[in-house]
Amino acid sequence: VFRDFFGGSNPFADFFDTNGDFMTGFGGIRGRGRKKQDPPIERDLYLSLEELFHGCTKKMKISRRVMNDDGHTSSIRDKILTIHVKPGWKAGTKVTFPQEGDQGPNNTPADIVFIVRDKQHPLFSRSGNNLVFIAKIPLGKSLIGCSIEVPTLDGRLLNVPVNDIVHPKYTKKIPGEGMPLSKDPTIKGDLVIEFDIQFPEQLTPEKKQLIRQALLI
Amino acid sequence: VFRDFFGGSNPFADFFDTNGDFMTGFGGIRGRGRKKQDPPIERDLYLSLEELFHGCTKKMKISRRVMNDDGHTSSIRDKILTIHVKPGWKAGTKVTFPQEGDQGPNNTPADIVFIVRDKQHPLFSRSGNNLVFIAKIPLGKSLIGCSIEVPTLDGRLLNVPVNDIVHPKYTKKIPGEGMPLSKDPTIKGDLVIEFDIQFPEQLTPEKKQLIRQALLI
């Protein structure tokens, strides 16, 4: 639908980055005498993990055609739609504003539907109610043991001791440090730590000899 | 379609394992006076990587209803359909036998279509024209270097020296040891060796000290 008005596939991508987002284009001229409702107008609503963790309010400004009081002329008006994002909402959650599309003399305005999408996060990915963090550790520490520091979405720094030998598929789970459950935000999923083990790029013959003694004898 | 006659989802699964496969059930009584052709009857044809590497001939016995000479009675007859599998065929390749479905007084018999599927192989997986082999090696050898032995689908044993340090995402490519190209079976894809590095389950303090000297100092 948007494509019809603007010719681009995602003309609003830039408008979702801050609170008080500005958005235009729920407009367009119709009026061919249809009486049934237009199909819903769906838009992606990209939210950061922090926004989904804490919950937030997003204000979306739309520009729509409304009928004037005379009943047969119309004009373009701005309107603010307010979305109350609850902690724990998942990608795919739909928020519907009924009949907020363009008004015309003979149509029922379309519903406007926002669909929650995950904005990519620099540190975490989400898996259901869990958060996944990838810790880079050097091979030596993966064998000897270490402590790693893991930031949280609410600004704390977790110190996680790792005493097991860390192999490439090893994961460590920290209960209750994941995303809040939307049904009860006091309960949270898990933080799952995966490990990206950094191997040395080269080894001297002397160091290879030490490795041989440690691992192959 | 098969489900209608047998009630199971894959009644022929067992019949595909050997050459000269036996297959029944392209049968069933129709005859409600339809004149157009019935929809194609599609069956999976599971083939091993060896069969797709060398090519092979598969004989499928079907049991179908054919019209008698009198033109209004019919009987069930067995028939052998022969599939010439060419080296390099890929999953998804379709082999159509036109109008080999049930005959009826008023219908055009359905086409019978076999769709090539990959049978799981114990050692290799296929990726386009490449073969992927996962080599298990102990961590020590991944750091010091080693030779690994890799079997081929045509019964040879490749000896592959690995001198680089092998990290979890390291791969080694051997050109020309993959699957034949169906357009020209004299040309073959690559063999891609991935590595599953076996970490020790525990280390003594003495060995940890050697690791520390080799990797962390």
From TrEMBL, chains A, B:
<dbReference type="GO" id="GO:0051082">
    <property type="term" value="F:unfolded protein binding"/>
</dbReference>
<dbReference type="GO" id="GO:0005829">
    <property type="term" value="C:cytosol"/>
</dbReference>
<dbReference type="InterPro" id="IPR051339">
    <property type="entry name" value="DnaJ_subfamily_B"/>
</dbReference>
<feature type="domain" description="Chaperone DnaJ C-terminal">
    <location>
        <begin position="41"/>
        <end position="200"/>
    </location>
</feature>
<dbReference type="GO" id="GO:0006457">
    <property type="term" value="P:protein folding"/>
</dbReference>
<dbReference type="InterPro" id="IPR008971">
    <property type="entry name" value="HSP40/DnaJ_pept-bd"/>
</dbReference>
<dbReference type="InterPro" id="IPR002939">
    <property type="entry name" value="DnaJ_C"/>
</dbReference>
<keyword id="KW-0143">Chaperone</keyword>
<dbReference type="Pfam" id="PF01556">
    <property type="entry name" value="DnaJ_C"/>
</dbReference>
<protein>
    <recommendedName>
        <fullName>Chaperone DnaJ C-terminal domain-containing protein</fullName>
    </recommendedName>
</protein>
<dbReference type="GO" id="GO:0051087">
    <property type="term" value="F:protein-folding chaperone binding"/>
</dbReference>
